[in-house]
Amino acid sequence: MIGVQLAQQLREAGLGWKPALGDRFAIPDRDLDDEVFVLSNMTIEVHAMPEGRVIGFNGTTEWAMDDVELDETVWLPREDQLRELLGGTFRALRRGPAGYEVDIDLLGEERTFTAGSAEEAYASGLLHLLAAAGADGA
Length: 138
Prior knowledge:
This protein is α+β, with helices and mostly antiparallel strands. It is built from three helices and nine strands; from the N terminus they run αββββββαβββα. The radius of gyration is 17 Å and the shape is elongated. This is Pilus assembly protein CpaE.
């Protein structure tokens, strides 16, 4: 699983989140950075409110929190979600001497991203893609 800091970098680079059942997220800056939450149709759901979308915590009697605004959370995408976000640029995932290596091809440029976990390697490649998309749109 990627950490909150890497997830925040992805969000700042422009990665959007359309919450779906099974998605993991964190609530940084509320002394909950080490807690991972999972959207579930039983306990944690997304609600559309007049003031915007919120994530509601249903039946959490031990918490003094009923809901949190979506923009106060950070999505922690899973390995399969990160791979899907790489789309047609993704070429390979393999185990290398320094960890996991993800190869992407962006407009004929081959790049390899290495990290300790497959998720982190995918996320590094995705950061590169988002930066390239931002540079093209600037």
